[in-house]
Design brief:
The protein contains seven helices and 13 strands. The protein is α/β, with parallel strands linked by helices. Helix 1 crosses helix 7, helix 2 packs across helix 6 and helix 5 crosses helix 7. The chain starts with 28 loop residues before the first strand and ends with a helix. It comes from Helicocarpus griseus UAMH5409.
């Protein structure tokens, strides 16, 4: 959340290059985290400072009922611009990029972080509304065209909360159980033109994929066209992928969620549950993210964290501990 502040250097606009690379496992819980850009008179938004300070790996200690879990935190390397149109385009792009880098597997959990300058505490939001985004963004625009009007056309509900996957109102089957896509590639060489049609069907949450590829190659050389000669080949390929997703059971944060979160944060830290995300960019991205999960038939395993406006080193460190505690809390409460 936040308006455009003074220009900041490129060094502050993205994360530093990581000096080490840790190999991921399909058993890791994968968490995607985002933060916002400058807000009003703040040249740096604490949401992105906190997001960019998070460790790449967190381990949830073993309990009497579950083994230790390794959690991989993937912070989006750029702050999201505080504009309705930017959020509408950025959220699906970020999730699609994540899937492309993880064998088609979406993040298990998503945490969006934003700033609430009027609050002196940390809060997890419980609900996001479809309508009513009338506060102008950094472009001087309200959220009607990129939010309410668009979402109404899609038949999305007026309120969304974290929760299990729901069959979307467009009548389609849960996308987590069945997806179908056709991609056409055309390449033209010196003497041949090839068209490749790929038809992919994905069944159930284990992402087992069958791909049928039809390749048609026809001659484009003049003398071969005169001879009316062509070559037609059909190749059928079955590819099985086991990029299994981590089972989750999300639900709106409640008293148990808050108690668990507090158990992972410093004792004196003020963390709360909120039912008012502000009807600005923070709530807008919360709804946008849950709406995409809703339409794709994924669990709405999405959390929004509001942080105070302080950007001093000590406050960012506290925010980091709060966010890490929230990651552990979500895994403890939502991951099966």
């Amino acid at each position: 959340m936040g308006d455009l502040g003074p220009a900041i250097s490129e060094d502050h606009e993205r994360l530093p290059d990581s000096p080490t690379v840790t190999k991921e496992s399909v058993e890791d819980v994968k968490v995607l985290v985002t933060g916002f850009g400058p807000f009003k008179t703040n040249p740096l938004n604490p949401s992105f400072l906190i997001a960019s300070s998070l460790p790449e790996t967190v381990t949830l200690p073993q309990t009497t009922s579950s083994p230790p879990r390794r959690i991989r935190i993937h912070t989006h390397p750029f702050p999201i611009r505080v504009a309705y149109s930017a959020v509408r385009s950025a959220v699906p792009e970020i999730i699609e990029s994540f899937k492309n880098n993880h064998d088609g597997r979406p993040p298990d959990l998503i945490i969006h972080i934003g700033m609430a300058s009027t609050r002196d505490y940390y809060a997890v939001e419980t609900v996001a509304h479809r309508d009513g985004y009338r506060i102008t963004d950094v472009d001087g625009e309200v959220g009607y065209e990129d939010g309410e009007a668009h979402w109404k056309d899609l038949g999305l509900p007026d309120v969304l909360r974290p929760g299990p996957c729901t069959i979307s109102s467009d009548g389609g089957q849960d996308a987590a159980h069945k997806k179908r896509a056709t991609t056409v590639y055309t390449t033209t060489g010196i003497s041949t033109t090839s068209t490749i049609v790929t038809d992919t069907t994905t069944v159930d949450s284990t992402n087992t994929t069958t791909t049928t590829t039809t390749t048609t190659t026809s001659s484009s050389a003049p003398e071969e066209q005169q001879d009316q000669r062509s070559i037609r080949n059909t190749i059928v390929t079955t590819i099985t992928s086991t990029a299994a997703s981590t089972p989750t059971s999300p639900s709106p944060p409640d008293a148990h969620f808050l108690k668990t979160w507090r158990s992972f944060t410093p004792e004196s830290t003020d963390v709360r549950i909120s039912e008012d995300a502000g009807r600005y960019l923070c709530e807008f991205i919360f709804y946008t993210s849950m709406a995409q999960a809703y339409r794709e038939g994924r669990d709405r395993s999405v959390v929004f964290l509001h942080v105070p406006g302080r950007t001093d080193e000590e406050s960012i460190e506290v925010g980091k501990e709060v966010a890490v505690g929230l990651v552990k809390c979500i895994v403890s409460c939502w991951v099966d």
